[in-house]
Amino acid sequence: MRVLARYLPQYHAFKENDEWWGKGYTEWTAVKSGKPLFRGHIQPRIPLNNNYYDLDKDGAETLRWQADLARKYGIYGFSFYQYYFKGHKLMEKPMETLLNNPDIDINYCICWANETWTRTWYGLESEVLISQEYGDEKDFKEHFDYLLQFFKDKRYIKIDNKPVLEIYKSFDIECLDEMLRCFRKWAIEAGFDDLYIISGKTAAGEEKRDGLVDGYYYFEPGYTLKNDFSKRARTFYNAGILIKSFINRFREKKLLERSINARDIIEPIIRREYAENEFPGLIPDWDNTPRRSYRGLVYKGTSPEYFERALSILKKKKEGHKVDFVYINAWNEWGEGAFLEPDEHKKYSYLEAVKRVVK
Question: Is the peptide bond before 36 cis (omega within 30 degrees of 0)?
Fold first, then answer.
């Protein structure tokens, strides 16, 4: 089993975030704003030794530390989110820093997070910040040429000389057939045997057109919440939201409106059978209240021990598969409480769990 951890690059200030969220906004801004909403609720989550890193000011140093830590604990590589909007790039600097520092010893690939940005975090889904558009062959070529420099990196993850490219919502791309036909052609012209395209199975949907992609990753916990959440659990979940949202109309101190027993999500993940080209996903923890306050979602009953058991089962399910990826969401999604990095509360416990399973 090769564990790939999702990597969020939003730990540095950049122009667009300054305009949309306020001067100097980074992921840490949301993380530091977390507040406890019930007894025993650990908020805010604080990185171990107050390591609020900046991927601009100390990018290479931080990436080197993260790479060393990941390798020490059995993480095969990072899946870097890429935010690319028809030539407009956001948060590209950390990945470029990695490319420009070949001594940073970590495998990696790119996950193109191809969705329109809105103010979803604050309940304003209809307010568009930047739209996702795809253009024509000229635009495809511009995107491919940018990707190619990473594909050529010896650290970049490849399957049989085919660079791995993940596309979060390939089902949203009407011109996907044409785009990937171009991408594959240009990859072969660049000396590769092809590309290995992995599409996301997400809460919003999945790729159902035949023959366009090579594999599928499960984006958790969203996929299972939408597709494999039992009717009984969903009924209680929805009823709880209605009751608490009604009560919150009359309370100054708000109740957390959404919580789920983690077992209702983790157990379907580990019971599922995965085809050769399907790659499971798993979360260590989940609490996105720093982003969404009392309207956030907390998974209760998570623990390093439970995570370790689930990862062990997924390892067995991928044994013997040529491509044996398992995705963990995430390395550093601090605003969603989904991170492997050490914090003041659980220290290195999740990383130690990965190491025991992998090694």
Answer: no
Integer Cα distance of 351 and 328 in angstroms = 11
- What's the whole-model pTM score? 0.97
pLDDT digits (tens, 9 = 90+) for 29-45: 999 999 999 999 999 99
Residue 349 to residue 355: CA distance in whole angstroms: 10
| Each residue's pLDDT tens digit, 325-357 | 999 999 999 999 999 999 999 999 999 999 999
How is residue 292 written in tokens?
Answer: 């969404």
CA 90 to chain centre: 16
- Say if residue 123's pLDDT is above 80: no
Q: Is 155:110 a contact under the CB 8 Å cutoff?
A: no
- β-pairing, 2-7 vs 325-328, is parallel
Distance CA 280, CA 266 (A): 11
Half-sphere exposure of 294 (CA within 13 A, CB side): 16
Whose CA is closest to 104, among 56, 156, 60? 60
SS3 content of the chain, % helix, strand, coil (to 5): 40, 20, 40
The H or E element containing residue 218 is strand 215-218
> What does the pLDDT read at residue 1?
95
Q: At what angle do helices 349-358 and 304-318 cross, to 10 degrees?
A: 30
Tell me which residue of 309, 292, 231 sits closest to 264, measured CA to CA. 231
> 187: which 2 tokens?
């990859």
Residues 3 and 19 sit within 8 Å (Cβ to Cβ): no
Q: Which two tokens stand for residue 246?
A: 């009604």
Instruction: List, as one string, the DSSP characters of 280-347.
Output: -EE-S--B-HHHHGGGSEEEET--HHHHHHHHHHHHHHHTT-SS-EEEES-SEEGGGTEE-S-BTTTB
According to DSSP, the residues that pair with 347 across neighbouring strands are 343
